[in-house]
Design goal:
mainly beta, 3-stranded antiparallel beta sheet, 6-stranded mixed beta sheet, single chain
């Protein structure tokens, strides 16, 4: 039997046996091949400011591109400058003083005028936004929360990030009587 290299794999044979290499022959030059919507990326330690900085891959909730805070301004995740992606950079804070965890959430609420979920008004706090918390958050009548990732700070400086969401989302808000609103999400 004679094997030859083919599409998607390489083959090597010697007197010791043979190997079949199915790794990507053309890996992404920027290392971003495994990105997906809402993935926390580019986590770096800003020594002058002694803070963790990070970016989030652009994602949507009900086809609305989320925002993240950069330099005290809410910016859409898919920002471009001169036609080139220029994703905003945010500060990862606060961290719980005991557990050293920072919870990264997608927060959204209903539109005050139309009652649509999520709000389409990008100046409203109910618009889908990436926020940080030092505690786990629970849904309220005002906001629904989706835990995107948890960052745990170690010494060194060193940090680890556990990612929970791997795609854009479709969500629904259901409010019955005086019960707290319930939020349901599905990955799209």
């Amino acid at each position: 039997m004679k094997l030859q290299p083919g599409v998607g794999y390489n083959f090597d044979s010697s007197s010791s046996g043979f190997t079949l290499d199915t790794s990507d022959p053309f890996p992404s030059a920027d290392g971003q091949a495994n990105n997906h919507p809402f993935k926390v990326i580019n986590v770096t330690y800003d020594v002058p400011g002694t803070a963790w900085l990070y970016q989030v891959v652009p994602g949507t909730l009900n086809n609305v591109v989320a925002q993240i805070e950069e330099d005290s301004v809410w910016v859409v995740l898919d920002r471009t400058t001169s036609g080139v992606p220029d994703w905003p950079v945010s500060v990862m804070t606060p961290f719980d003083s005991t557990t050293k965890k920072c919870y990264i959430y997608l927060r959204a609420g209903k539109d005050a005028t139309t009652n649509d979920f999520p709000s389409n008004d990008d100046t409203s706090s109910n618009y889908p936004r990436i926020i940080n918390s030092d505690v786990e958050l629970a849904d309220t009548d005002t906001y629904g929360y989706v835990l995107l990732a948890v960052a745990t700070e170690a010494t060194g400086p060193s940090i680890s990030v556990v990612q929970y969401v791997s795609g854009s989302l479709w969500g629904d808000r259901i409010k019955l009587g005086t019960d707290t609103a319930q939020y349901y999400y599905a990955r799209i």
